[in-house]
């Protein structure tokens, strides 16, 4: 089994990994701040079929969704892209930093503004700035950081669009560095 972490991986790349690395190549979603995986796919679960569109599902103890709207807390329609929001606590969620009593307050010695953004949607809602699409079957496809864009002439271009453009012209770029794959063995 192989996994990657919530990066936008298009169908061609996913099929390549499944063919040459491992047949059960899945997507999972987590970040250091999460403390562990929060979205993934159960191995061998017929209700969560392996697809080359990198879908994954929230783990049973995660109350998460994709949200849009003016306050960023309206559940997105199926097929719509929005921001990933986790509501409520889960078993391995960090509730403080280094057991600091003043965590997140003005007197705290850490970066208050940075940590405040994680809980900016209100009490009990954790956001990290990642974008995803919600599907009718309860699955999610992650599309990387919602703020990771290049602004070109007023057009916001994300890394996913750049990678897909490179793949569209793969014949001309066959020898390019983008088509090399490193696999480490231990």
UniProtKB/TrEMBL annotation:
Domain of life, source organism: Eukaryota
GO cellular component: cytosol
Gene3D superfamilies tied to this protein: N-terminal domain of ligase-like (3.40.50.12780)
Coiled-coil positions: none
An example Gene Ontology biological process: acetyl-CoA biosynthetic process
GO MF annotation terms: acetate-CoA ligase activity
Name under which the protein is recorded: AMP-dependent synthetase/ligase domain-containing protein
Species this chain originates from: Haptolina brevifila
């Amino acid at each position: 089994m192989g996994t990657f972490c919530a990066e936008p991986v298009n169908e061609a790349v996913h099929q390549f990994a499944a063919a040459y690395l491992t047949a059960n190549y899945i997507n999972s979603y987590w970040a250091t701040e999460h403390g562990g995986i929060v979205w993934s796919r159960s191995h061998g679960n017929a209700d969560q079929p392996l697809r080359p569109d990198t879908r994954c599902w929230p783990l049973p103890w995660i109350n998460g969704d994709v949200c849009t709207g003016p306050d960023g807390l309206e559940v997105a329609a199926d097929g719509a892209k929005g921001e990933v929001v986790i509501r409520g606590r889960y078993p391995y969620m960090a509730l403080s930093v280094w057991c600091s009593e003043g965590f997140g307050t003005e007197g705290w010695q850490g970066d208050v503004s940075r940590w405040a953004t994680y809980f900016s949607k209100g009490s009990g809602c954790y956001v990290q700035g990642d974008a995803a699409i919600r599907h009718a079957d309860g699955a999610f496809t992650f599309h990387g950081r919602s703020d990771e864009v290049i602004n070109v002439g007023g057009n916001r271009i994300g890394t996913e669009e750049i990678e897909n453009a490179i793949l569209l012209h793969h014949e001309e770029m066959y020898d390019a560095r983008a088509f090399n794959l490193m696999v480490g063995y231990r």
